[in-house]
Specification:
44% helix, mainly alpha, 300 residues, two-stranded antiparallel sheet, 2 strands, binds fe (ii) ion
Length: 300
Amino acid sequence: MEKRTPLTEKETAPLRSLDEWEEDLLYRYPEADIAGSEPGQPAKAKDAYRDYDNPGRDTVREFYRLNHQYQTYDFVRAKEREFLRFDKREMPVWGALEYLNTLVDDSDPDTDLDQLQHLMQTSEAIRADGHPDWFVLTGFLHDLGKVLCLFGEPQWAVVGDTFPVGCGFSDRVVYPEFFASNPDAQHETYRTPYGVYAPNCGLRNVHLSWGHDEYLYQLTKDHLPEPALYMIRYHSFYAQHRENAYDHLMDDHDRAMFAWVRKFNPYDLYSKSPKPPVVAELKPYYEDLIAKYLPATLKL
Ligand SMILES: [Fe+2]
Ligand SMILES: [Fe+2]
């Protein structure tokens, strides 16, 4: 792997809070647009997003500049080796959720939900719609992989839209112009449409940019039903579940399973309600659900 000079504070944390990325997703994919996101159809919001003038734009732009520059095939493989040993620490699931909640949020401390409340709003919306308990649990856990930030990882290696590495970057990934600074864009194999992969090889054979999705998938893969694992692993893969930019790497099984990823996405994006859930009241229900599916402690 290429040697780099150590990252500056600005390069590690371009966003004022991790939530800025998710707030930006709402500008790109407003709720009214969801009807326009049928498989095979690119989402409609993109042009509006491109012109949208919002104060968070500069930090989000800078975030994607760094993300697209540094998420190379070699970087992803190195992070997999570093984090998929799960030898950093051991804690109960609820402890890990509370640990996640220590992520400091600098922006609008009065109005923003903390991480645990975002998870609970997502899962409570799923529960209210009468979905199976493993679906509810998936909503409750889906961002737990953000604990990567607490291990000192830069924001652009924890959150952000994900995209395949080791093959050509799609111009349907947000801010595609920033891929010009990614050395893989010049690589003789990685810059080709299929790169190191075979046509329609299935996403299980494809490495996506490194972040909280893949990390949590690997952490939970022996414990949850397959649709839950697809939701966890690909919930930030907007380039596919909203933009259908990587059909050429998907197999039929992926296509069937992405119905679940698309079913999950509105709960993640649009379940914010002004009345935050009372965590203490709901805790016993979620502790039972965690105990039903997951081991008593997680190895992070
Ligand atoms: Fe997420
Ligand atoms: Fe989320």
